[in-house]
Amino acid sequence: MSANNPTRPPLPPFTRETAIEKVRLAEDGWNSRDAERVSLAYSEDTQWRNRAEFVTNREECRAFLSRKWNKELDYRLIKELWAFNDNRIAVRYAYEWHDDSGNWFRSYGNENWEFGADGLMTRRFASINDLQIKESERKFHWPLGRRPDDHPGLSELGL
Question: Which among 31, 42, 123, 125 could bridge 114 via Cys, Cβ 3.0 to 4.6 Å?
Fold first, then answer.
């Protein structure tokens, strides 16, 4: 790998342990809400389907993430490994956020990921549903940023 295209460990083929690590690294990145940093986990020619939006390269990915986090305020995400094989990982996740009017949502989803040999994600397919919730129904209460290691995951929260 060149300096312009470094590897992004853990690399495929994944074991259960490295797949769990890859999922947590993705969660940590998205919880940073730093579109530039997060976009570097994706290949230059990454292909996404996110709901009904299609992304076809890293620059579109960066723009998508910037729009997302400008709309989805106080965003907090938990991802959980669902399945893995060779260079693919399936995750389920939930995140909580509110809009600029103070309406809270919990968004539930599933993603299928495919990685290149360099560990960069080449394909991401996401299906997501939004559930409006009351602020009192929130379950994700850590300070913005990385979810603390002792905070329950989706299964522990009954999600």
Answer: 123
